[in-house]
Amino acid sequence: MNIHQYYPVDIVNGPGTRCTLFVAGCEHQCVGCYNKSTWRLNSGYPFTVQLEEQLIADLNDRRIPRQGLSLSGGDPLHPANVADVLRLVKRVRHDCISKDIWLWTGYRLEELSTQQQRVVDLINVLVDGKFEQSLSDPMLPWRGSSNQVIHYLR
């Protein structure tokens, strides 16, 4: 899996202070997307074991209490990303027990594949649906357009 950005301290992508990972790869390519640079799977740089270790350490760092992990992109549930995202989510669940996990995807909950659903079964909040420029509303919390749905899962 490639990523575009890792923010060890983020207060924009979900509630509280968080670690946020923007992955590469998106099939949806929504008109008006603010993150077009993440669409290509081979863009960005590899998500390494060292970066994963840093992310886990950051989530557990008591000097800056973080509420959890946010996964965005691109699309973390892009078929090419699912195996790596699943492994990461399992690791966060095991090593960062008190942290929540938020995930943004252009796929809708009811259309997820079995493998994508395995990821969703382990997260706390899913924000689903493609960004629709005609439904854009900058006042919406945690989403870009009114068709997108916030699913509180745990």
Description:
This protein has 3 helices and 7 strands. It has 154 residues and is an alpha/beta fold. A 7-stranded mixed sheet has the order 3-1-2-4-5-6-7, covered by helices on one side. Strand 4 (68-73), helix 2 and strand 5 (100-104) form a beta-alpha-beta unit. Helix 2 packs parallel to helix 3. The longest helix has 14 residues, at 82-95. The mean pLDDT is 96.
Low-confidence stretches: none
CATH architecture: Alpha-Beta Barrel
- CATH superfamily, by name, is Aldolase class I
Q: Any idea what the radius of gyration is?
A: 14 Å
Global morphology? globular
For this structure, what is the CATH class? Alpha Beta
Feature tags:
154 residues, TIM Barrel, 7-stranded mixed beta sheet, 23% strand, globular
Element layout with pairings:
Blueprint: E1 2-10, E2 18-23, E3 45-46, H1 49-60, E4 68-73, H2 82-95, E5 100-104, H3 114-120, E6 125-128, E7 149-152
Parallel strand pairs: 2-4, 4-5, 5-6
Antiparallel strand pairs: 1-2, 1-3, 6-7
